Amino acid sequence: MPDARYRRSLAIFLGFVGMAILAILSFLPNHDKVLLHTEGHFHRWGHLVAFAATTVLLASSRRSLSARFAMASLVAFFGYCVEFLQHILFNNPLELYDIATDTMGVLLGLVFVLLWVEISRMRRFD
Question: How many domains are contained in the chain?
């Protein structure tokens, strides 16, 4: 069984890989986005799940509450930056709904991590 330090390092690595994948997918040409189904019916759910999963990876890699909030804030800021860069580079309207969905995913991921930690802590004392 890998030690805690290795698991935390792996979670950070996978979290940043996830952010890189999100960035790449965000700046693909529109016809490629349609082929990869990053637009359409499941677009909002994709934002929610991707940002929640990234937050779970990065926030769970930290031990302190403030560091977990910092990681979640980093992911939320990343989502805003991606949307803002799409607005600037491609002259797209700033998609506030996407920013809100990204932020909701971050919050859900953070709540999941905090609940998981608390449940794990309670189990140790049973």
Answer: 1
At which residue do the structure tokens 């030690």 appear? 3
Contacts of 28 (CB under 8 A, 6+ apart): 36, 38
State which residues form the domain around 21: 4-124
3-state DSSP assignment of residue 8: helix
Cβ within 8 Å of residue 104, ≥6 positions away: 48, 51
Q: What is the pTM of this model?
A: 0.89
Q: What is the pLDDT of residues 34-74, one digit of tens each?
A: 676 666 777 889 899 999 999 999 999 999 999 999 999 99
d(CA 34, CA 120): 41
Q: How far apart are the first and last CA of the chain?
A: 23
Structure token pair of residue 50? 């991707």
DSSP summary character for residue 37: T
